[in-house]
Design goal:
Blueprint (H helix, E strand, L loop, with lengths): L10 E3 L7 H14 L9 E9 L4 E5 L12 H12 L5 E10 L12 H14 L4 E5 L5 E5 L24
């Protein structure tokens, strides 16, 4: 048996206002996206903003459904929209934030496992890492460069491919 260790790396800013200007701007776009959220069940409104390589920002918000599994997270809404409308453009960064009905979010809003897997697929497809900027309404902001820092042993396309063995005749 061999024991291996995985390290992750992230930037942390004590206050989100200390973020580099481009990251703060993208978080503010995600804050705007929160306003289009449909979250009557959880009352937890999430916004995401995706920065494309040409400078265009695509926004998404969580969309809930009375049949809970049928809803969709803000991150996937934004990433799928960007991919479907601008398939030739790479995703440079995504910012995520949230606003709750009954409390102020003060910790970074991190993507769920499904969203992390979609980010991994996006990175794999485009061949470049995505900068992921996470913040609540107030307080600490965290940034990771590349989904490997949030999903270190991700499921990748090559795991689906099987080599055909040549048969001897």
């Amino acid at each position: 048996m061999k024991v291996r260790h995985i390290q992750i790396h992230f930037e942390e800013y004590a206050e989100g206002e200390q973020l580099p200007p481009a990251d703060l701007s993208l978080i503010n776009e995600a804050r705007q996206a929160v306003n289009t959220s449909y979250a009557p069940y959880s009352e937890f409104r999430v916004g995401a903003a995706v920065l494309l390589e040409n400078g265009l920002v695509v926004k998404g918000s969580n969309q809930e459904n009375a049949s809970y599994p049928l809803g969709l997270c803000a991150e996937r809404v934004a990433l799928f929209h960007a991919s479907s409308v601008y398939p030739e453009l790479k995703v440079v960064a995504i910012a995520i934030t949230a606003k709750a009905q009954h409390f102020i979010t003060t910790t970074p809003i991190t993507p769920c496992g499904a969203c992390r897997q979609v980010m991994a697929e996006t990175e794999n497809r485009q061949g470049t890492p995505i900068r992921i900027i996470m913040r609540g309404q107030q307080g600490v902001a965290q940034i990771v460069n590349g989904i490997g820092n949030l999903l270190p042993l991700s499921f990748k396309e090559e795991k689906l491919k099987k080599k055909r063995e040549k048969t001897k005749t």
